What does this fold into?
Amino acid sequence: MREVAIIGVGQTKVGEHWETSLRHLALQASQAAVADAGAKRVDALYVGNMLSGELTGQEHLGALVADFAGLRGVEAIKIEAASAAGAAALRMGYIAVASGLLDTVVVIGVEKMTDAATSETTAALAMAADADYEASQGLSLIAINALLMRRYMHEYGYSRQDFAPFPVNAHRNAANNPYAIFRFPVKAERFGTATPICDPISLLDSAPICDGAAAVVLAPADAVRGLSAAPVRIRASAVGTDTVALHDRTDPLVLDGAVLSARRAYQQAGVGPDSIDLFELHDEFGILAALSLEAAGFADNGQGVRLALDGEIGAGGRIPISTMGGLKARGHPAGATGVYQVVEVVQQLRGLAGANQVGGARIGMAQSIGGSGATVITHILERAE
Amino acid sequence: MREVAIIGVGQTKVGEHWETSLRHLALQASQAAVADAGAKRVDALYVGNMLSGELTGQEHLGALVADFAGLRGVEAIKIEAASAAGAAALRMGYIAVASGLLDTVVVIGVEKMTDAATSETTAALAMAADADYEASQGLSLIAINALLMRRYMHEYGYSRQDFAPFPVNAHRNAANNPYAIFRFPVKAERFGTATPICDPISLLDSAPICDGAAAVVLAPADAVRGLSAAPVRIRASAVGTDTVALHDRTDPLVLDGAVLSARRAYQQAGVGPDSIDLFELHDEFGILAALSLEAAGFADNGQGVRLALDGEIGAGGRIPISTMGGLKARGHPAGATGVYQVVEVVQQLRGLAGANQVGGARIGMAQSIGGSGATVITHILERAE
It folds into this structure.
């Protein structure tokens, strides 16, 4: 098994790209990553995407994107794991390069969500939930998370306002990220009066529907040692799963899939939470950010929100999260998000995160969640010395 | 890189399973394969599927199937490459075991197509075509293949009737396969008067819309050497791609993706067409069977139909195809088909194909096509001595 490095990254601005097609978004991210890597040759292309069939009538993205990106003929496959699709594609690319079978793999996450009506997009996103037992009863993904948040507030005695630090931190960081959809700060005071979407989740506590694509280029770490551009090693790549339906979970307030995923990743990398300098987590809603912090060992159960209230999730805190805006403010183009997170960790480890730079960042973690926690994929990256 | 063996196979009967859900189909195939393998532990589950989002409102099949199959917590991801999804999932499972990262991987192909109206299914299948340039113009997948067939007939001087040997061979073999949807022979004389579906493709020349699931269990070849049940080695696993839209192809009558895919597979295995004892190809329509035979080197361009007319595709012929009924008569549950093909090759190599046994079969090839040839995935299997 070979060590794997990320030798190039690329991303499009997250936004409402009504005049840019799915394949164009993928092309832009891919071209940027391949140029960044200086790659002369590509052996395979793995595309992470969740909703292209439902929202744009297009399956078969592997071959489609490969051809459009100038890679006609190469191995190309689409990977899906609901909103963790991008991270799942990276997992597959990682394995392929680690195996020795392929030398240069481009991983793209792409999603185009704004061409459909919001109701259609909401229905499509609910396909991450259990179609037979949840979605068919009218439970959308945001409704499931609202139930989780309500239970968490009840169980641990928090108010809705206590979740404000998550979007405040995310928006503050997005303001400095040219690729983010929301480049403006928000005030905690506005949180209490924000438009409700699915009580207790409000507009200020929910990631937006949006479009975007991000890409990374993978190569064997040995082959790139000594090159001038700083490569980043993938120290761990781990998937954990759980029941799709919330009612089947042992404890709905513990993301077992995230516990498994993080534990496996720490074991592979031979590190613990204390060694992680920044954590790009799946802050689609504040409640998911809190539960992720707990599952990954940064807070005890019920203390994820407390960690945020104590100011420990910003730059200089115990564990900086959403350092480029997170899902909340960089944006969450579903199947692309897992790759955006990794691109941002690479930016941090390269020391190129600008005003949002986490000082001395050496090890970063990215974690992507499918649905309400049924698939959780964790990658730990380290700056090559 | 480790050698990989298939140590267990399982399948459900292909049919119209109105009373069996998607997850139940997957469960049945998975249980059968795991029991056949005698596997005590599973490290990951890769699910090949094309249409679950569009037709049953369910994405996120990896985690869903893992939980339902009693594998909650394990790595689980869905793979899609249009109708080659099952083969793509096998490709990913193969790489994962070859890499040394995972020891036991279950690969499931599953599709449920009959719960929707035929018009919905036809529209969903067209998502394998180019949404912007083909499907949006009304070109369904069968219409694309009808254009190909018409051009082939014009170019090489064949009649519609000349394609009869493909379904005749497929149905003859399906009659002996308890897992096939159409267990009856058809006569070549009926071919000329069969109900047209999309001229020149008729009912007798088109694979059916149906449901089914198939599964294989993969393990390192070294670990299973000497076990009593005959393992089958994966000697090659290769993906080739081409443009999704037909109009972009160099020559529409040459499946460049299949040429690449077969060439790469032969190279990996160190064999040529002459060493292949049977070929499970993607005979969704007779024209695709003919073009596949040509692309894989069993016939010159324009001679695929001639090969069939000469009786060379049946048992005892130069290259037996569709030995258990093929897509035409075993059935074609889209994303499951690539795994069915491999299960059948394993049956042949184990000498367990009953009345359809290809005498002395040692090396078999399975090739799955996504759409009209944009993704082509080839696996070469060999009986372990």
